[in-house]
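ingest -> validate -> predict -> emit
validate: passed (alphabet ok, no gaps, 390 aa)
predict: started
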Amino acid sequence: MSLAGLKGDKALWVLLLLLGLFSFLPVFSAASNLAYTLGQGTPFSHLIKHIFILVLGFGLMFVVHNLSSETYRKLAWVGLLLSFVLLVLAALQNTIIGGAVASRWIVIPYIGMTIQPSTLALLALMIFCAHVLTFAKFKGKPIPFMKSIYLLWIPMLAIVGIIIPFDLSTAALIFLSAMLLLFISGYKMKHFVFVGLTLLVGLVIVFYVFQFNLEFNQTNRYHTWKSRVEGLIAAEDDQKNYQIVRSKAAIASGKIIGVGPGKSRIKNILPQSTSDFIYAIIVEEYGFIGGVLLLGVYFLILFRIVVIAYNLKDPFKKLLVIGVGVPIIIQAFLNIAVSLHLIPVTGLPLPLMSMGGTSIWVKCIAFGIILGMSQYAQNKNAFISQIKGI
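emit:
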């Protein structure tokens, strides 16, 4: 499959391919933590699995980028309902992984594979929001407030509400992404303020109840939230900062050019070095230069997403591109910020770099949607011309 035969934005295709190919190196290196420290397989077996997942993901990307925008409109409600059902199933089965409650996953019987419905819910909700916000019956005007309550807010809060107890960071990402789409679509600020204050009061009440509810106070997730916030302000030698201290040590060890591919010394004592903290391993092995270049790739991907959205005339396509694309880049920046100890630990993987299954596949589907919509972009040089004229 040659690059010339691909449809859509060629620059974005190249950036995604480079990101995927580069991920083989840090994954193979960091997988030694799983192999030799936890006794799970070998670095080579984890690399093969990662390659298989990425190849399948890019296959999904290729298939999806050939679909029309009307396909997503038709699937908007179906996708939302399916993701909600999967979230309910995940919550009800009370999965235990590594001795902890892990109801964010569904274990597929017989094959032992797990899927994470919350990542699918993010994609489904963004497609749904773009669909509802551009209903033809609104005649190009912002969605009326009362209609937005039952068409948007209730479905959105139902999805976010069921995710919060098990995956607060993903729930927050979904909510903020939905807010971004509402803002871009022209949702009135006074309505934002009204709904925001109502939700704030509700959250204060909920967390107050959680704080003094002995049963909930003893759950894994409550202590996880609490320890992550405390870890952000804790002393460097505090046990709550176990991961962060080692992440910063890995970054400091990298200096300018890094210790070299596969030569990380921190990977075997840094938990989640293949997922949540893979950026720290990348900086250790490839240095400040490698870390900045990777960050630059994500900025370039964001730039291409903005260019594509800017050049789309159809409001639905424009919101669809922003809705499925920008959250991926936000997640990347949040993951990097965690490694740098700028925000509490979130548990969000680095898109297309960290090991994973559902996360990679959903991200590939999202990029497939963006690449498909980029075929409809007009005046492709207008955005660049405006920047040069500033």
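Residues 81 and 124 are 9 Å apart (CA to CA).
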